[in-house]
Amino acid sequence: MAKEMIAMLLAGGQGSRLYALTQKLAKPAVPFGGKYRIIDFPLSNCVNSGIDTVGILTQYQPMVLNEYIGNGQPWDLDRLYGGVHVLPPYQQASGSDWYKGTANAIYQNIPFIERYNPQYVIILSGDQICKQDYSDFLRFHKEKGAEFSVAVMEVPWDEASRFGLMVTDETDRITEFQEKPKNPKSNLASMGIYIFNWDILKKYLIEDEADPNSENDFGNNIIPNLLKDGRKMYAYHFSGYWKDVGTISSLWEANMEVLDPEHSGINLFDENWKIYSRNSGMTGHKICASATVENSMITDGCQIMGDVKHSILFAGVTVEKGAKVEDAVVMGGSVIKAGAVVEHCIIAENVVIGENAVVGAMPADGQKGVATVGSGVTIGAGAKIGPDAMISKNVEGGEERW
Amino acid sequence: MVNSNADALGIIFPNTYDSLVPQLTNERLMASIPFAGRYRMIDFILSSMVNCGIDNIAVIVRENYHSLMDHLGAGREWDLTRKNGGLTIFPPYSQKNLKVYTGRVEALGSIIPFLKSQKEKYVILSDANIAVNFDFKAMIDAHVASGADVTIAYTKEEIPESARKSDLGGDLYFTLKLDGNRVNELYINSRESGIQNFSMNIYVIDRELLIRQTEYAFVHGYTFFERDMLAPYLDKLNVQGFCYEGYAARISNINSYFDENMKLIDDDNREALFGSNPIYTKIRDDNPTRYIGDAKAKDVLVADGCVIEGEVERSVLFRGVRIGKGAKVRDCVLMQDTVIEDGACVEYAITDKDVTVSAGKELKGADSFPVYVAKGKTV
Hints:
The complex is a heterodimer of chains A (402) and B (379). Chain A has helices spanning 40-48, 63-69, 102-107, 110-116, 134-143, 198-210, 218-228, 248-258; strands at residues 5-10, 31-32, 36-37, 53-57, 83-87, 91-92, 95-96, 120-125, 128-130, 148-154, 164-168, 174-179, 188-197, 233-237, 242-244, 285-287, 292-294, 296-298, 303-304, 307-309, 312-313, 318-319, 324-330, 335-336, 341-347, 352-353, 358-359, 371-373, 378-379, 384-385, 390-391, 400-401.
């Protein structure tokens, strides 16, 4: 029985620019928005779009991700035929290889895709916050009679040179591809989400693999090769919320935007497009009499005795009496002790911020740094963490880090 | 069997004491009454059993059980989707001569073939009217150590006024007279006041004995397990008491429902009930709760999925509750998806699932008499 379209989700990214947050886990497993991990978004999009077969390509620090995905039940992807499969690189009779590039990762899993004999394959990226109906994308792909389609976003012209750009004609057919050009001819940025006809994708993957000079990358090799051969390539315009959360500041910003879904952020309250995740199972959160909570998002299991303003608290966070949390993202299980001040920062999972410690600072004098404390770190009492600091080891009481 | 598994089978009677809270059980049963922000009453006994290694659990439903079936599903959230054992729900078995049962004997009688085919040595019987993180392992150990035929868990507490005074119909309650741990007398609907050995209606009994007693009682047309199968045999059977000293929230009428919810706002109580082992429940995939604009919250227990724009104090909010701008909520238990519209003012109220309090309306009960708004109603 063939599937019409299956998804291949690239989740091997190290997320090196998130350094302190990705020491022990892959970027798609980074927590987001109070109770989610980044990978919940593409996975939920798949399910909500009717895609029931997803291959997740992992490589870097896969343990947390593997455990999190499990049998895929939270996303309704525990299926008899299809469902979610984690696909790490593996040893073969001819030797073993890490995934050398995005295209090579798919190439190594051609047998997996063949099992489902799909007409179309959608390639997804595991490090974006986005709500997208892939079935609408597929409809576009079919209507255009395309062999390859890419989802694009219009970006401001002055930022265009940071992206891979698609130059199109009036029918949305792609005529040229510019990778981070100095002189952009287009402001249509590739979102790194592609639909291929499977026969085409397979052909180009095999050819690409045979080319010893190739970097085995979709953007650098496969797409240029398709263009060279005059394949039917189209750009699908996407206008919803999309954010690449590759840096600490963009991750922080995307989290803060969640607090304002009416204007800027992703709407997590959309009953018609639920984002699924593995739940903490903790009991409800408690706001004590000594607490004030303003414009924030609080998750099950939190215990709030201090002041929380414009922040996102993940499951099981404790904010003790007299502590102050503002413009902060505090991930699961962290404890902010009495009198500590935590501002404009990202605190990873299971962190302890000691009494009267100060982490981060509200932006002043053009200073916009987002302090970051990595998971499991203890910040001693009275320590001071500057707004640009990235902390991945314990900090003794009274010390200062900038 | 590795020793993390208990050699016991669980049987839960979800309908017992439905009559104590007629408002809440109008469209559901005791076991599916929402409790503590995100749970249903049955979650506590079910999770306790699972946490003690009991993974073969039967739920014998009697009536109004749609909400419970919906809640339990295949039992996955409690890790009870098992090839061997797992969760089994027994709906009333309509035979020509069998009416919907009123007592435990008939309920057990209807599943005798099931009981006979199981392999566990012991059976645990429990109702679902008590929210408790119960250590069944300790109770089974005590049962084995004492060589008892039957062990009954009890608490030392006063019998709630409501239970003593109300007309319980088919629902009886029991107190124990003890000699050491041995149960000498089993009082039914005792009128005495003061601290007593109040049965939790949690029993450990040998499976073979249970089958024998049930068959005997069944053919004699008896109805009640305690009245007809235990009380008359206290001299012949070794019946032991097992004193439970942990936290227990017993629902005995609408007031105690309100009070037991409110008590869990207190950190010590919440820790006592939830601290030892996890309590599992059905997942709803709600987003975290948002506090927007001028929202003010003090002394509240709030589940995920709420949107709070008004003021809320000393209240328990279940999943998906919305409190509009300028609305004031004090001393309330708001069940899932309750909507308090802008400017409304609600005090001492229990709103059932999907209740709406319209903009600007006032709804006030008293601390001794919380107002109850039925499921789906609009004020």
